[in-house]
Amino acid sequence: MSSADTGFIETKEYRRFKDFCDACRTYQYIGLCYGVPGVGKTVSARYYTNPKKLLPPLSWPSEGNVEKGLDNQVVLYTPSVVNSPGQIGRDLGRCRINFNACLLSRLEKEEKPKLEELEEYKNYTRGAGGELAGAYRHHQQAYFAAYKQYRARRQEIREAPMLVVIDEADRLKMGSLEQVRAIFDQGGMGVVFIGMPGLEKRLARYPQLYSRVGFVHEFQPLSQEDVQRLLREGWSPSGGSLPEEGLIDEDALATLIRIAEGKFRLLQRLLQQISLVMQVNRLDKVTREVVEAARENLVIGNT
Question: Model-level pTM greater than 0.85?
Answer without folding.
Answer: no
